[in-house]
Amino acid sequence: MSLKRAISAAAIFSIIVPTGLFVSAAGSTAATSQVTFLSEDVPAGLDYDGPSAAIPASQVGMVNLMEPLVYYKKSGKSPSGVNLLKFGYNPADFQGRLAESVTKNGLVWTFKLRKNVVGCKGEKFTADDVIYTFARAKSVSGAAPIGYFLSAVGGIKDFATFDGKVPLGDEVKKIDDYTVQITQEKENKLFLPALTIFGMGMFDKEGMEAQKTAKDPWSHDYANTVNVPSFGPYCLSKWTKGSEFVLTANPKYYGGKPAVSKIVLRKVPQSANRLAAIRTGAAQLTERLTPKEFASLKAVKGVSVGSVVGNESLFLNMNYKVAPWDNIKVRQAVAYAINYDKLIKNAYYGQAKKWKSLVPSTYPGYSVPKTQYTYDPAKAKALLAASGYKDDGSLKLTYVAEKESTLGPVVTQIKADLKAIGLDVQLDPLPQTQFGDRQLTKRDLPFAVNDQEKPIGVDAGYATYLFFITGGLNNMDNYSNKVVDDTYKAIATEADTTKRNAGLATIQEELAKDVAWVPVVEFATQWAYSSKLTGITWHPDNCVRFFDLKI
After folding, report:
1. Number of domains in the chain
2. Sheet strands side by side (includes 313-318)
3. What is the C-alpha separation between 177 and 115, in angstroms, rounded?
4. Contact call for residues 522 and 360 (beta carbons, < 8 A)
5. Residue 162's pLDDT is what?
6. Pairing of strands 94-96, 83-86
């Protein structure tokens, strides 16, 4: 990069005591400081039941404004110094957040809520906020019912039909102002993990009900476009859609005022500009650079690069309801057409590995299917010919436009690989908001490259339920397989790990045979940041928690 370009980028960006089974989250000391965080995008919406919920930047906003009942404990560091979490299923693996403690008696979980929790406008947290949050989830009134989905994942009683017609009953019950009981239908090991996910953040009932209308009794529009009343460590002070998202520390946060008092999140789609801003100190944190750009920063004084092999991947999704992608021979042809090794070398500079299943290889329950697809253009041509499909030049390969820096080399090679077997696809970049809406709510993208979807629940069963069960919440390809559905149903409440993993292996084999997706590569999650900034922690949603940071 030229010095002139670096100076130009700099000019643009310069502004710049526990009880029960859980250990309570520790707070940090107050300070006056600012972190400028550059990303491909800023939040498009803040309603986790809304159309923007699948967009990574929107999730960043949600997790820093909202607060869950429980969360994972920290445990160790990656080789590059990134803090890690301890994942598991048992109460000992979790710490209290809004719930100070939890106990279990059979299928009934009792949550003792933390007292003196105060939101950004002075609102106090009580059991009524928990009841409101689950009642809103059960209404299935949002564009993407993630709250309901997660309640069903955790096996909460009477959360199974997604019809929205049955109001919340005693499955989530207020005992007193600071005690709530939640009853499961059956034993389910995903109960506590599901409560950690962004779609289980607690709403402030009073703040939400103040914004309701006759047409929108659960305030979806307000939460999605204006603000999300909750009890998190940060408060929203400015939101310029498509440009900037500014947070200030909640001085009354129960865990102590955050060490970083102001976060300025800016949209800078071009990775080269984000790179220049980090080099010059105009920004303190960025993500989603190209592998080559991250590598170039490792020798730069005053800059750190943190990485974790977590759950990120790139895959091709082909819609089962759209021809020719409903033809398994076409799907197989695409899977054999990709030159995986060349892609890893040229687009990822060797910093990726071929993905062998449709579940992150780091997750419990991961299995390598016997059915594998390797680069074989001759076989791909034969399969395409056998499919009967005649290319007419109308096929499009869609990807997120804001990711041009990282996905441009990927889609360019995939286009060339497909042309070599007789499929002349046109590249179709879409704005992030449109891509997310069509993927999560409309489910009408015919053929797309995706590197931003990941199962946030750290478990192969969760990944199955999220992406591949018939009618599943994020079944973006409208995939359906009775063996997958029946096998998942049989193991959803299976306590025997060996039996459960055997079922999950069966599911992953079916997904591979069907080419439910074309798994391409797995790659590390990386950040570049000022060496003065500490506290970067890997979370399974890949969102930075600003409360973790100090500078």
Report:
1. 2
2. 352-354, 517-523, 313-318, 447-450, 396-400, 426-430
3. 9
4. yes
5. 67
6. unpaired
In the numeric block, the tokens 């687009």 are attached to: 347
Q: What is the pLDDT of residue 160?
A: 80
**What is the mean predicted confidence (pLDDT) over 521-548?**
97
Residue 258 and residue 546 in contact, taking contact as beta carbons nearer than 8 Å: yes
Specify if 290 maps to a domain: no
Examine the domain organization and report whether 434 and 537 are in the same domain.
Answer: no
Please name every residue paired with 265 in a beta bridge, in sequence order, or none if there are none.
Answer: 37, 245
- How far apart CA 56 and CA 52 sit, in angstroms, is 9
CATH code of 139's domain = 3.40.190.10
- In this prediction, residues 413-420 reach a mean pLDDT of 98
Continuous segment of H or E residues that includes residue 15: none
- In a domain, residue 74? The reply is yes
Q: How far apart are CA 308 and CA 193, in angstroms?
A: 20
535 and 518, same domain (yes or no): no
DSSP alpha helices (H): ranges in 14-126? 56-65
Q: What is the mean pLDDT of residues 124-132?
A: 98
Tokens of 480: 């359906």
Q: Do both 354 and 218 map to the same domain? A: no
The DSSP bridge pattern shows strands 352-354 and 313-318 to be unpaired
Domain match, 331 and 373 both: yes
- 230, 340: one domain: no
Q: Which residues contact 472 (CB under 8 A, 6 or more apart)?
A: 465, 466
What is the per-residue pLDDT for 161? 73
Query: What per-residue confidence (pLDDT) applies to 32?
Result: 60
Regarding whether 392 and 536 lie in a shared domain, the answer is no
Residues 398, 448: contact at Cβ < 8 Å? yes
- Tokens 């100076």: give the residue: 7
pLDDT digits (tens, 9 = 90+) for 69-79: 999 999 999 99
Stretch among 31-40, 147-156, 485-494, 495-504 having the lowest mean pLDDT: 31-40
What is the domain-level CATH number for residue 395?
Answer: 3.10.105.10
Decide if 86 contacts 97 (C-beta within 8 A): no
Residue 277 lies in a domain: no
CA distances from 201 to 49, 133, 206, 369, 539 (A): 11, 8, 15, 35, 15
Residues 358 and 467 sit within 8 Å (Cβ to Cβ):
yes
Helix extents (H) in 473-518: 482-491, 497-514
pTM comes to 0.91
Q: Would you state the structure tokens that stand for residue 488, as one six-digit string?
A: 């998942």
SS (H, E, C) 205-273: HHHHHCCCCCCCCCCHHHHHHCCCCCCCCEEEEEEECCCEEEEEECCCCCCCCCCCCEEEEEECCCHHH
- What average pLDDT does the chain have? 93
Specify whether 370 is located in the same domain as 517: yes
Average pLDDT over residues 444-461: 96
Question: Among 13-17, 226-230, 319-323, where is mean pLDDT lowest?
Answer: 13-17
Res 166: pLDDT: 87
Domain, as residue range, for 326: 313-523
Same domain, 212 and 336: no
